[in-house]
TrEMBL record:
<dbReference type="InterPro" id="IPR046825">
    <property type="entry name" value="PDH_C"/>
</dbReference>
<dbReference type="Pfam" id="PF20463">
    <property type="entry name" value="PDH_C"/>
</dbReference>
<feature type="domain" description="Prephenate/arogenate dehydrogenase">
    <location>
        <begin position="8"/>
        <end position="301"/>
    </location>
</feature>
<dbReference type="GO" id="GO:0008977">
    <property type="term" value="F:prephenate dehydrogenase (NAD+) activity"/>
</dbReference>
<protein>
    <submittedName>
        <fullName>Prephenate dehydrogenase</fullName>
        <ecNumber>1.3.1.12</ecNumber>
    </submittedName>
</protein>
<dbReference type="Pfam" id="PF02153">
    <property type="entry name" value="PDH_N"/>
</dbReference>
<keyword id="KW-0560">Oxidoreductase</keyword>
<dbReference type="InterPro" id="IPR003099">
    <property type="entry name" value="Prephen_DH"/>
</dbReference>
<dbReference type="InterPro" id="IPR008927">
    <property type="entry name" value="6-PGluconate_DH-like_C_sf"/>
</dbReference>
<dbReference type="InterPro" id="IPR050812">
    <property type="entry name" value="Preph/Arog_dehydrog"/>
</dbReference>
<dbReference type="InterPro" id="IPR046826">
    <property type="entry name" value="PDH_N"/>
</dbReference>
<dbReference type="InterPro" id="IPR036291">
    <property type="entry name" value="NAD(P)-bd_dom_sf"/>
</dbReference>
<comment type="similarity">
    <text>Belongs to the prephenate/arogenate dehydrogenase family.</text>
</comment>
Length: 338
């Protein structure tokens, strides 16, 4: 058994793109894993491919309770409350995490049910515009940032062995999937993803509408820059609403900042002579910093990404480990546990 192995079975609730891909990754490493999918057809498709899946939520959670499994909630935001209620009823002693794109609202639902001592929030920064089991695949999370929240350890001087072990196993699950565990406070996570995940959805939707309003000629001339910029507009509108509306306060702040930049650009273009130098230069510098941060090699047809996130190794529960988590967060660094 390697240092990355999760020391309990994994039970995944929701086998869509994220949950299904995680199920595939865990199974590929020979670790015990099974899951539930509300869609009978999705569950049957997983079974047909040789995976352990069911469309019976109660039976799946009762099995998790027997196995003392690590439960992963991988359902849309609107279904989280229902799943938490089911966990409280049928697997009340199990630790669990989630992969929802907002953390404050999930934490609120967890606290409302008195389950915070059994919960470690997380969020993989990976995915596509597609959804459902049929789009899941191994390797989706390779070298992706995967946020893991540690508010509970900050708020409790002694979070207890159960929570520390849970945090350890969630971190190991992230590492097993090939992702990089980035420790975060819940509020900091939601503020950050508002800028780099949720705002892009809003801008992509607006850009898609403006392009479409150009008619058939504009559509015919649309090249990669437009298609890349509007890719996430192909995401299910319901999923976009759930992401953005449940993180509205942080998203409004980021959107206000973007609107100021766009308004200034509009005025600069309307001037005589037109001058877009400020936004063009600032955007170029920002993108250059992002490329340097991601470790992308330039001048490559298929850029290879090598992690440039600093890594801090720690032993959960050891003296000073929470301070190390805070340091990693301040650096945007990843953690490895031993």
């Amino acid at each position: 058994m390697s240092s990355k192995d999760v020391f309990r079975p994994t039970c995944i609730i929701g086998l869509g793109l994220i949950g299904g891909s995680l199920l595939r990754d865990v199974a590929a490493h020979g670790q015990p894993v099974y899951g539930f999918n509300r869609s009978t057809s999705g569950a049957r498709a997983a079974i047909k491919e040789g995976f352990d899946a069911s469309d019976d939520l109660v039976a799946t959670l009762q099995r998790a309770a027997t196995d003392d499994a690590l439960i992963v909630i991988a359902v849309p935001m609107h279904a989280v409350g229902e799943i938490l209620d089911a966990i409280k009823e049928h697997a009340p002693q199990c630790g669990f995490t989630d992969v929802v794109s907002v953390k404050a609202e999930v934490l609120r639902l967890v606290r409302d049910r008195g389950l915070e001592a059994q919960y470690v929030g997380s969020h993989p920064m990976a995915g596509t515009a597609d959804s459902g089991w049929k789009h899941s695949h191994t390797g989706l999370f390779k070298q992706a940032a995967w946020a893991i929240a540690f508010d509970y350890a900050v708020e409790n001087d002694n979070p207890g062995k159960f929570w520390v072990d849970l945090f350890t196993d969630v971190t190991k699950l992230i590492q097993l999937a090939g992702a990089e565990a980035i420790p975060v406070h819940v509020a900091n996570h939601d503020a950050a993803v508002a800028r780099v995940s949720h705002l892009p959805h809003v801008l992509a939707e607006a850009l898609a509408v403006v392009g479409d309003n150009g008619g058939i000629l504009a559509q015919s001339l649309a090249a990669s820059s437009f298609k890349d910029g509007t890719r996430v507009a192909g995401t299910s509108p319901a999923l976009v609403r759930q992401m953005c509306e449940t993180n509205s306060a942080a998203l409004v702040e980021a959107l206000d900042e973007a609107l100021i930049l766009l308004a200034d650009a509009r005025d600069a273009l309307a001037a005589d002579p037109a001058d877009l130098s400020y936004l063009a230069d600032a955007g170029y510098r920002s993108r250059t910093r992002l490329d340097a941060r991601s470790g992308a090699h330039k001048n490559s047809v298929s850029p290879v990404k090598i992690s440039s996130r600093p890594v801090l190794r720690l032993k959960p529960g050891a003296y000073g480990w929470v301070s190390t988590l805070k340091q990693a967060e301040s650096l945007g660094g990843r953690i490895e546990v031993y």
